[in-house]
Write a structure and sequence with these properties.
Distance between the termini: 50 Å
Mean pLDDT: 90
Strand order of the largest sheet: 10-11-12-13-14-15-16-17-18-19-20-21-22-23-24-25
Number of helices: 7
Structural class: mainly beta
Shape: extended
């Protein structure tokens, strides 16, 4: 008996030239299955009318029997016109065959699985139901799939039989399944002898001797890929050598090249054309240390950064890093050169949240407006962040991101200035059919006596693509007596955006942004609103926004175009 599930795909198969089928009567699923069987016939207009009718009659019977209708009738009429043949089929399903007995017997350790009991309740045939061969086969497949993915590798059906009595419209099902034992994970064998075995084993979300779980094994494989060490990873159970209730895992690894180079080019209205060159050395030594360096340059910013990473328990989320950076920023009334050294410790603390503690050494020589100065700061601090997404990485359909950072400087540990900087950010994305809502908010405060004591790179500015659209990049902040931007102690911005997908690769957007960067709480809020287009590409949406400032700034109050590329999160 053919399975319905394996044949429905034929609905979209090309029809043999010259023969068209029209099915009526019965229910929509019955008509769809009959049509699928009819279109699967290898007939042509050279066949006789009698042959086509007889063959189609057989196909209709098989299609309806698959749905449990063993006494169905079909009236088939055939009409020829030139080279075309029209086959009209009227079906009368009749009384269905129902399951009068379901003889289910389960032996082995699978009997103790609570999860399998839920699967059985939801998918097993029930007495009194119409017998459907597709559902019957799907249940057997679900049992086999569950068993193999949970380590019942010896599981098999000792009996699988269906007896149909056409005259009584009855079906009796006998299904006996012996799962055998649930295998446990024995050892993890790595194909490369020179990898840090203990470090990589720590990425597994299971211990040796734990019951086999395919989902956890797949998660282990994904974590190995995320280390950045390997160009390919394959984790498989050694089925041929399982014994004594244990199965070993074989980890086939292909290491990346000793040196990896990357070049990138981007554009935004905030920074203009931006180029990036990155060098990554994924294997520094046998302990899994990593080194990377990058250069980025745009009309407003030029940066050089390096990182040396030392894994602790796993190289993905638990490591120590030494980072260095040089940044030159020339934008609006800012001209800054900053040198930064950061010692950072990140923990694998929670599946979602990423905590870090750090110690920064910052030396900055800068001009901000009419002020020329240099500052040396030693700043311990911590950060906490997370990102959750669903859907494609470049264009998720759901998600949110949150981050919080705090850093402190004091003359007690030889800094030039006493200050505390706090900053928080959140962004939310939710989709409803063709619609999506994107909301974001950013806030920050610098606790310091005078804003002039704070290095330019640490002060707050607002305005731009990811801040308040309608205003220039970092163009919103308090100004000095000469009208130059000086930066603020406080930052508060928010945005609400609505997108509607009106075509396969296009969305329309409307948005409203508001906020400010200020030195006291009685300064005005700025606001901008506008419309935009989103072109969906493999690297993320290409966004073009037309924004109007709703509060006149010192610059202007005309429409501004904002352009950016990348994921909404």
């Amino acid at each position: 008996m053919r399975r319905l599930a394996l044949l429905l795909w034929l609905i979209s198969s090309p029809v043999i030239a010259g023969i068209n089928y029209q099915v009526d009567g019965g229910t929509q699923p019955q008509r769809a299955n009959v049509e699928a069987f009819l279109k699967a016939q290898n007939l042509s207009n050279d066949n006789s009318d009698e042959f086509i009718i007889a063959h189609s009659q057989k196909q209709v019977s098989e299609a309806l029997e698959a749905l449990g209708y063993f006494a169905a009738q079909a009236q088939i009429k055939l009409e020829r016109s030139d080279d075309d043949i029209q086959v009209n089929v009227h079906i009368t399903p009749g009384t269905p065959v129902r399951i009068t007995r379901f003889d289910w017997q389960l032996s082995g350790q699978l009997n103790d699985s609570a999860d399998f009991k839920v699967l059985f309740k939801n998918q097993a045939p029930h007495e009194g139901d119409i017998f459907n061969s597709g559902d019957y086969d799907a249940f057997k497949s679900a049992v086999n799939e569950y068993a193999s993915s949970h380590g019942y590798f010896d599981g098999h059906f000792s009996q699988a039989k269906v007896s149909v009595t056409r005259a009584k419209r009855e079906a009796v099902i006998h299904l006996h399944y012996d799962s055998g034992v649930r295998y446990r994970i024995g050892k993890i064998n790595f194909s490369s002898p020179d990898v840090p075995t203990k470090l990589l084993t720590g990425l597994a979300d299971f211990s040796l001797g734990a019951p086999y779980d395919a989902q956890k094994v797949a998660s282990f494989s994904q974590s190995l890929n995320q280390t950045g060490y390997f160009r390919s990873v394959l984790v498989t159970p050694k089925m041929g050598k399982r014994n004594n209730g244990q199965v070993d895992l074989n980890v086939d690894l292909r290491r990346k090249s000793a040196n990896i180079f990357g070049v990138g080019l981007g554009y935004s209205t905030d920074e203009g054309v931006k180029g990036k060159f990155k060098w990554n050395h994924p294997w520094v030594n046998r302990w899994g240390h990593q080194f990377s360096a990058s250069i980025e340059a745009s009309k407003t910013d030029q940066t050089l950064s390096t990182e040396y990473r030392i894994p602790v328990t796993n190289p993905v989320n638990d490591y120590i890093a030494l980072q260095t950076g040089y940044e030159r920023e020339i934008d609006n009334d800012t001209d800054s050169r900053s040198h930064l050294i950061t010692l950072l410790r990140q923990w694998d603390w929670d599946p979602q949240w990423t905590p870090q503690i750090f110690f920064k050494t910052l030396y900055e020589d800068y001009r901000q407006g009419q002020q020329n100065d240099s500052t040396l700061l030693f700043m311990p601090g911590f950060s906490l962040s997370r990102i959750r997404t669903q859907g494609p990485k470049a264009d998720p359909s759901w998600g949110d991101t949150e981050s919080f950072m705090a850093e402190v400087s004091s003359p007690e540990w030889f800094s030039d200035v006493a200050l505390t900087k706090l900053k928080a950010h959140t962004k939310w994305l939710r989709s409803f059919g063709r619609s999506r809502i994107i909301a974001r908010a950013t806030s920050g405060v610098i606790i310091v006596n005078h804003i002039s004591d704070v290095p330019a790179s640490m002060r707050f500015f607002a305005g731009g693509d990811e801040s308040i659209r309608g205003y220039g990049y970092k163009s919103i902040s308090p100004r000095d007596s000469s009208g130059d931007l000086v930066g603020g102690k406080y930052l508060a911005t928010g945005s609400l955006e609505y997108n509607y997908q009106f075509a396969d690769k296009w969305r329309a957007a409307v948005f409203y942004d508001t906020g400010t960067a200020a030195n006291n709480f009685d300064e005005r809020l700025y606001a901008g609103a506008g419309v935009g287009l989103r072109w969906l590409t493999p690297i993320g949406p290409v966004r073009i926004d037309f924004a109007k400032p709703l509060v006149k700034s010192e610059e202007n109050d005309h429409w501004r175009i904002h352009f950016s590329i990348g994921s909404d999160l």
